[in-house]
Amino acid sequence: MRPEDEIRATVDRETRAWDTQDVELLLSVFHPDMVWVWPRTYTSIDPLDWVVKMGRFNAARWGSVYEDLFTRYELVHNRRSIAKIQVSAEGDGAMAVVDIDTLWRERATGDESNHWFGRTCKVYALVADGWKMTMHTGALRYE
Predict the structure, then answer these.
(1) N or C: which end of the chain has fewer CB within 10 A?
(2) Domains delineated in the chain
(3) What is the reported pTM?
(4) Would you call 111 helix, strand, or coil by DSSP?
(5) Which residues are paired to 39 by β-bridges?
(6) How many Å apart are CA 76 and CA 114, to the nearest integer?
(7) Tens digit of each residue's pLDDT (9 = 90 or more) over 88-110
(8) What one-character DSSP code corresponds to residue 47?
(9) Which positions ≥6 away from 120 have C-beta within 8 Å?
(10) Measuring CA to CA, which residue among 114, 86, 83, 81 is closest to residue 100?
């Protein structure tokens, strides 16, 4: 399989994890050195306005966060479209630009304000067991 196809498959695996609320599948996408950063708002293009949401990947800690999300929220829709995939000349690094529209409904209240909408950039490294996400920009809306 070409590296671009492997990246597409990795993005699709992550999407499937969100769609099925499968914590183990979701965790399988992350590199052990990943740190999760997120912009404060969807228009926070400047990284000075970003925050660290979760420190270095820890399967138990991150899994607990996602279990809580899936317990508290019902997925209304999860629309994702890959806009670009680029693999490094060395073939061991890649990025996928993915447009997302993911809407969650809080089970207790019906509130639908937890809406992830915008363009993301997912960065991957090729390791012994395949492509793993090392970094991800939060959803941004570019004008």
Answers:
(1) C
(2) 3-140 (3.10.450.50)
(3) 0.93
(4) coil
(5) 50
(6) 10
(7) 999 999 999 999 999 999 999 99
(8) G
(9) 97, 98, 99, 100, 136, 137, 138, 139, 140
(10) 81
pLDDT in tens, 37-67: 989 998 999 999 999 999 999 999 999 999 9
Alpha helices in the chain, H assignment, sequence order:
3-20, 23-27, 59-72
**Cβ neighbours for 8, distance < 8 A, ≥ 6 positions apart:** 82, 85, 96
CA nearest to 35, candidates 128, 136, 140, 123: 136
Q: Are strands 73-87 and 93-106 parallel, antiparallel or unpaired?
A: antiparallel
| Distance, CA of 69 to CA of 50 (rounded, Å) | 21
Residue 103 CA: distances (Å) to CA of 16, 48, 128 = 15, 26, 34
Structure tokens at 59: 């399967």
Residue type, 106: E
